[in-house]
Each structure stands twice: as structure tokens, then as C-alpha cells.
Fold each of these.
Amino acid sequence: KNLLSTLVLASLVVAPASFANKNTNTNTNAKIESSVSTTEKKQLSQMRIGVLDVRSIIDGSDEVKTLQEALQKEFKPKFEEVQALDKGFRENVEKFQRNKDVMSEKERAKLEKEIQSSQQQLMTLQNQYAQESSEKQQQLMQKFLDKVKKEVEVYAKKEKYDLVLISDAVPFMDDKVDITPHIAKALKNKA
């Protein structure tokens, strides 16, 4: 861990300069290399690192697709209720726009009040629907991601990985460090 901290710290301190001038890459590498002892270099060369593409795991998961379908089914009545209220609101607005010039003051005031009331109801229902469905989706995804994390831990221990990174945090990786297919297969076998 000390070795990794040293490397990360060294790269953070020296890396910004390397982006400013390409000619400093040699100097940057030399500075990093000189800050790492021979023992640390040996430890680093023996370190086994894997990378996981979580987005790929989620996108390719039958379990996630099933969860999404169940979520849609669960929230379909609420969604349809929002759509019906929205349709009624739009119809009232169109009716008002179309007939406002020929309506009596009393009719116009009544319809305006109905429009305002249905708009408030619609906004409340939309917010409620969005919040409830978002919370439920987050709960389901967290359960799935916990399974992914457990599979990564099992695989990393079995295959003796020292470190597993998320691909979003890695600007470049060689395919040989990608453990995504192994994790996807393990998840599929447990489904």
C-alpha cells in the first residue's frame, strides 16, 4: 500500500507538468523512477492489477434487465395515472386557448382555476412518481452492485489480484488486465 501511495502521489505531483509540455515526459518518468526504490520497483512489477467495466456488466446482465422490467411493471399504474392527468391538463389548456375570447368571465375564471389545480396535481404526482421510481431503482441496483462487488472480491482472491480498478477511472488499459468477462460469467452462473 505504501508503494502504491508513493506512486500515486508522485504521479499527481509530477503529472500536471507533463500535460503542459510533451518534452517533459522523459523528465517526469525519471523523477518518478528516482523516487521509487529498487525494492518498491520489484514489488510493483509483481503487483497484479485487474480492471472491471461496471457499465458493461450492467448493460449485459439479464438480471438487470429482469429488474428493470419488474420496475416498469410495478410503476406502470402510477405512470398511466400521470399520463392521464397530463392529457386532461393539456386538453383544458387547449380548450382555454381556443375559447377564451368567447367565454364569459365566470367560465374563463372557472377553467383557469381548474387548469391551475390540475397543473399542481400533475406536478405533485410527477415528482412523487419520479422520486419513488428512482428510490426503488437505486435500491435494486445497489443490491446488484453488491453482488458484483462480492464476485470481484471472490475472483480477485482466487486469482491473486492485488488491486482491481473500475475502468472509468483508468484512461488506458490492456485487454489482458480486463476481468469483466470473468465477473460477467460468474454472475450469469449464479443467476
Note: Residues 34 and 150 are 38 Å apart (CA to CA).
Amino acid sequence: PVVNNIVLLTPLFNLLFFMRKFFTLVAFTAISFFAHSQVLVGFDFYGRTGNQATDVSTQNAVGVLPSIISRGNGLSATIMTNSFSSIGFSSTLEASIAGNDYIEFTVSPAIGYQISITSVSFFGTRTTPNTGGPRTFVLRTSLDNYSTNVSGPSTQIAQNNQSVAVELDLNQIIISPTPVTFRIYGYDAQS
């Protein structure tokens, strides 16, 4: 069977039945992969300090295995309650890619299933004073070794201290019977 859904990284934010948190300076407050508006994977960061090295999904659709969210080695963890928070983003996409400035997670279908994903969404927050939080995001996948954008660029977080919903619609639906790792690259960071 095909699991047509959204991948959602959740924290304490309820978007209908979606919750999410993610980075700080962009504190991602949610990430979701959508395909026919069902959450495939969700991360709930409520009660978390924000500086945890990784986190495990708390919501998984039937036919989808648990996932782990982590940072690329170009980012550093920072404290921000109820989030998965990071600093160290670059000003350009090229520098972000070269510097490994990304948040990563894998969506893995169970045996006998395949996943269908149309978008990824999350809540992001830039903090004040702004110490380099990204305003623009692109999404890349392991399907082509992270060489092309499958969505974006999406510039959506212009204000500080606001939680903003960011949706990255995929250029085409991803359907896969094998695990797919997603990287959200943040850039256009400004101090």
C-alpha cells in the first residue's frame, strides 16, 4: 500500500493535528511532509530544551517507521524551550551546502509499503537579538545525493520573534518504497 501523507516535524504547535518545532534563529517549530494531508512523521519538541543533539519522532503513520531528526555539522545547538534549535547558518545557499548547514530526517516505509510525499512544512522562529537565523529554505533529498532542490527557495521568515509557518511544496511528488532522507538547508542569515 502507498502511505499518502505528510511528513511532519512537530513540537507543541497544533496545526489541526500537526505539531512541530525545528530550529532557532530559526527554531523550527514544526516540520511536516504532506501528501493528501496526512502526517507521515511528526516530532513533538514540547518540554525539550532545544539544544538536544537529536530527537525521535513521536508520530508515525501506519506503514512508516520512526525517524530521527539531527543537524548538519555546520550548525550548533542552542537553547530555546520547546524546540529543536540551531545557530550557524550561512548567508548564501552555496555556503550553506558547503558548510553542512541543514536539518535532516529520514522517512522510512515499513516492508510492503511505499511513501508518497508532496510537501514539507514547519514553524520557524528567528530570535532577537538575531544572531544569524536563516530567512530562506530549500529542501533536498538522498534520492540524488542532495544535488538538486526538490522545493524552494522559500523566503518566509523575515521578522524576529515570530513563529512563522513555512511550507515547502515539492516540485514533483516523491513516491518511494525505500527510505528517503530529507535535508532542509537554511540560509540568507543576517545578524
Note: The longest helix spans residues 93-98.
Amino acid sequence: FDFRDFFTIKLHIIKKVEKFVEENFKGKKVMGVHFRGPGHNIEIKRQLINLGYNCDSNSSPEGEITAVPYKEYFRLINRFIRRNPESKLFVTSDDSTILNRIKLRYGDRVIEYPAFRTKGGEMHLLKKQNKLPNVSGFKLGEDVLIEALLLAKCDVLIHQKSNVSNFIKLWNKELIAVDALTPAQVPCQVI
């Protein structure tokens, strides 16, 4: 069965995706980067521990796991850039801090969709704690759907385990997708 048969994407979403691709991806080799914020880390704690990260929630005043696996992402991004010197990075994250750090490191190479983001990510869970302006769940959902569809249009995707990355891989079964936290599965000849 084709996963896409179970979805009908509204025309205004398709038009936003097509316009963004035309303006930002056309004629370029693009690596999609889906990088979750530290609020997601409870779900990937075992992977982080195996990679040597301190996942002691007592080390954070809020009791959160604050490790962010930049090293694993940067290693894969750098390899991709070495093989594709003119390439671009389409970066998505629910955490503005992560996006800003990647932009600082890779500069004009970074492409981003103007989605709503927060410091720390997980905005659907942390709305009150983040003191966000009145942002509707519809807007947050539309942003994540558009970003997921855009990631599915990239040449290669690096990601962490998440429902968004699962959706992307089902939406585009031909996409080369690599879990950044599982180094053993990274096909060196591809990235």
C-alpha cells in the first residue's frame, strides 16, 4: 500500500511547499536536517547515553535532559558539504537555539522555513512555560506539516527518531534518510 493514499494535503499547503521549493531548492543539492530540541531527549535518552552524553536530569535546574547531539549532526553535515561543496542545508527544528547555532556555523548555506519556534522546543507541550503569544495549534500543525513535506523533497535527510521523521520517510520512500544518532547505519558513500 502507498502511505500517501491515506492523506489529502490541502491545496494551499501544496502551493506553499511548491513555491518554497522553487525559490530555495531548485537546481541545488539539499540536505534536510530535522533536529529536535532537548525537550525530545527523554525519548532518545538511551541513544544519547550510548554516544557518551550526560543524561542525568539532576544536572539541570528544571530536571530536564539538556544534552544536544550537535557533534553527530555536524559530522554528517560536514561530510555532505565536503562531497557537495555548493550544497544547501534545509534545517528544521522546534528549538530556535538549535537553528541559530546551525546558522552561525554554516551561514548562508542554511535555508529555513519561517515556522514558529521556541527556545527549548516542544512548544506544543511548553506553551505556558515559554510564555508564548497566542499561537494556535492549527498554525503549529501547519508549520510542521509544511516543513515535513519540504524535508521529503530534499536529496538526503538526517534526523533523530521522531514521528515527523517517520512521516517523512513514509511520504518519500526513495529519500535517503539517516538517523544521526545511529552512526553504524550511515552509508559513507551517500553522505
Note: The helical segments are 11-24, 45-50, 70-83, 96-106, 123-126, 137-151, 163-171.
Amino acid sequence: HPWMDSCLLEQLNRWFSVFRWILPIYTALHFIPTLLFKRGVVAKRPGPTLLKAALGSMRSSAFLGTFVLIYQVALCSKVNLHKLLSQETAFPLPWRKTPQWALDIISGKPTFWISGFLCGLSLFVEDPRRRSELAMYVLPKGMESAWLMARKRGWIFKTGQYGEALVSALCYPCLFSVTHKRFSVDGNGHG
């Protein structure tokens, strides 16, 4: 963020930007099903029902803003820590030089995995009942990424044109089992 010196202010600005950007999409995702499938409830109790949809829209938008905020803070922290330890800043360090292996760890690939794991904490902002929906959205993308990485590293045998079908065959039973468990409890998806 070369236009701003403060990492903290930039991350708060980014959170509000993402929140404002995604709010219309989540508003549609919360209001349209409510208005289409819960017409009776909306007719009997319009205030609380529409308020619940509005709060759900804001909560989902806050989830995505928090997801981006966590990743950006982790990335900024990593870059700033590397600069500090490699003495690219004006702060004097009590030791002469940080070992190269320590700098390599800070700038290595595992730190991106840690950042991704930390982003998962943003799920606690979202409604617990919606977490399985988010998992159903993310699981196919995760399986596809794992497949592509494994194929690139030679861990997967040659599948030719059937590789994507194989990934789908592995992925969709997982999705269907989650969906079946969720909707079989009371028929409405409220397990």
C-alpha cells in the first residue's frame, strides 16, 4: 500500500471497502430467499423477519471483510518483520545480523499456509448455520487446487482427459453427505 504509510489504517480501510463492495451481493442472498420462500412469515412478522435478513447480510459482509483483513495483516506483518530483521528499517537491533535461515523462514511458503489458516478464523464472524454452506463452496476449489499441485509435482498418475471427472467424483460425495446430513434432520436445513 504505497499510498499510505500506516498498515493499520490501510487494513481498516480495506475492511470497509470489502464490506461495502460485497454488501449488495449478500443482501440479495439473504433477502431474496426470505421474500420468496418465507412469504407467510414475512406477512405475519415483517419487521423481525426483514431485520434478521438485514443483520445476516451485514454479518456475512463482515465475514468477508474480516477474511481479507486477516490475510492483509498477516502479509503486512510478514513483510515488516522481514524488513526489521534484515535491518532495512531505521530501528537499530541489539544483534548485528539476523541469520539467513530465519529470514528464509519468514519469507517462505509455509508462512502463506499459516496466513491461510488464520483466515479461517473469520468463519467465527459468520452465522454457525452458514458455515457448512461456505465449506460446500470452498471444498471443490480446495480439491481442484490440491489436484493441480499434486499433478504438477508428479504425485498423480496420468489421467488424460478424465482428471477433472476424477476430482469431481471424489469431491461431490463429500458435498452430498454434508447436504444430506444438514437437510435430513428437520427437512428445513436447521439441524
Note: Residues 46-85 form the longest helix (40 residues).
